[in-house]
Amino acid sequence: MIPFGQRLTAAIQLKQTPLMVGLDPRFERLPPELTQGVEAQNSEQAAAAYEKFCVEIIDVVADLVAVVKPQFAFFEQLGPAGMNALKNVVRYATDRKIIVIGDAKRGDIGSTAEAYANAYLNPNIDGICCDALTVNPFMGVDTLEPFVNVALEHGRGVFVLVKTSNPGSGKFQDVPVENNTLFETVADEVQKLAETSCSGQGYGAVGAVVGATYPEQLVKLRQRMKNAPILIPGFGAQGGTAQDVVGGFDSAGNGAVINSSRGIIFAYENEKWSDCRDWRDAVQRATVESIAALREAIGAAQS
Amino acid sequence: MIPFGQRLTAAIQLKQTPLMVGLDPRFERLPPELTQGVEAQNSEQAAAAYEKFCVEIIDVVADLVAVVKPQFAFFEQLGPAGMNALKNVVRYATDRKIIVIGDAKRGDIGSTAEAYANAYLNPNIDGICCDALTVNPFMGVDTLEPFVNVALEHGRGVFVLVKTSNPGSGKFQDVPVENNTLFETVADEVQKLAETSCSGQGYGAVGAVVGATYPEQLVKLRQRMKNAPILIPGFGAQGGTAQDVVGGFDSAGNGAVINSSRGIIFAYENEKWSDCRDWRDAVQRATVESIAALREAIGAAQS
């Protein structure tokens, strides 16, 4: 069993890009051909459209990127039918050898956290088994440990929210704690868990979520958590540029995975791609463009 | 449409108890008659057992308590089948006129938070519609607002994690912020949202989660958030006593709802109830006992 941190690093190196595609299906923004004759209120029909949309995106990006990130909320909005679609999407990506980071942001006390961890990180359970899961640290380190334990047992990973991409993330995350901020205090705990998970070598099974919208903090957090891979949302539609994310990488160009969701999956809506053959072609071209932009920015930062 | 805060207060007054029963099904602890012939690994079968267990508990407690709180994690562990069981349990409780507080502890940025809110608080969507939902504030106030907006639109409520019941909750929640702690800073934001939701009259649609395991903090938080109903977990199996929770009530005996899960739903395992006819009888007697213990403690505190 290859530990998650190694597996993630190797997969990114193989595809030669840290870009990850976020799977955030929203009914009203699906390509019209997928919603033709589908009633938005019919959760079975809508879930089938979500599944088809995500599966086709995976087909388009499977040779281009190493990782996809389904956003659980959009599937959950369709109830059990949506969870079934999510399960099928996760399995499809896994069968295509793509790493799946489930964006669920779960968090709860001990035995309940363990149930969540088993639900989404344990391949021996008939659930929705991802390669890694995003988790919320607010309830304390003792509520992260069950996720980490289940992840380690099964070669999976955990990404802890540290500094999130939304405009209001500072309200609680930036409060001063001694000479630091709360998010730096969380980062130190993440680093401890990450270091233990890989005996201090390379990247561990515990990573951090740090928004592209906070590039200065990203630079500091990269230095602060040397064994924690960083999942960087906020690139693209949320306003983060390729230049903003370069601080997330180490000197060898490793250590970060960059998410773009709406800018890629709904590229067909963008006038820039109006000459595309169809929505899949727009997804493909937007992905290639994002990969190139990241490659240029990372190359420039390292030269 | 009666606002959530009023509806909760009235329902508790009608039943004359603030006790809430937590629905936390765990396969290995279900009464043997429910798991006979059921394979734990078969999620459809296990989900059917969870549903039967919860429905029977609801039948037992429907005349005794005003509120139940399903813990999402245990249902999610069974994948889509578990979510379907959860949906049926929520609907069953609602049909029996019991208020359902979904313990999901969700939290995400703007439009994603809105998807979660619709999933669990919007009766016009074919999802799992609860009367209120627990949410995590770590990402900031801007991530709470979509939940509050959807809740208000549909006469539903939101309970924000403020000071959780686990031993390690102090790690991040207790960090000092100016003359307060982080959890008090969160509490002040909860109070603002609660006050706005009810124009400062009585209890609003936004409440707080404060663990019974921190009785001193509970007293202070009751005073600090005069319009926020407090959901108090940690009573019973987690160690909180009836005496520990009295600080959550206002001088009229309102303003709190007290959760007990394992101590009630798995009462049949307790030697104390070994003379019960069956597991349902044990649930009934444990519920009655908890109600009496709370009534005595609250009465003593007010006299």
Walk me through what this model shows.
The structure is a homodimer of 303-residue chains. By secondary structure, chain A is an alpha/beta fold. Chain A has a single domain (4-302), classed as Aldolase class I (TIM Barrel, Alpha-Beta Barrel). Chain A contains 13 helices and 10 strands. In chain A, α3 (43-61) packs parallel to α5, α3 crosses α13 and α6 runs parallel beside α7. The radius of gyration of chain A is 18 Å and the shape is globular. Chains A and B meet through α4, α5, α6, α7 and α8 of A and α4, α5, α6, α7 and α8 of B.
Sequence stretches where pLDDT stays below 50 over 5 or more residues of chain A: none
Strand order across the largest sheet of chain A: 1-2-3-4-5-8-9-10
Write the element-wise H/E pattern of chain A from the N-terminal end onward: HEHHEHHEHEHEHEEHEHEHEHH
The CATH architecture of chain A is Alpha-Beta Barrel
Query: Largest interface, counted with CB-CB under 8 A?
Result: A-B, 61 and 61 residues
CATH class of chain A reads Alpha Beta
Helical coverage of chain A, percent range: 40-55%
Quickly give the structural class of chain A: alpha/beta
What's the total number of strands of chain A? 10
SS element count, helices of chain A:
13
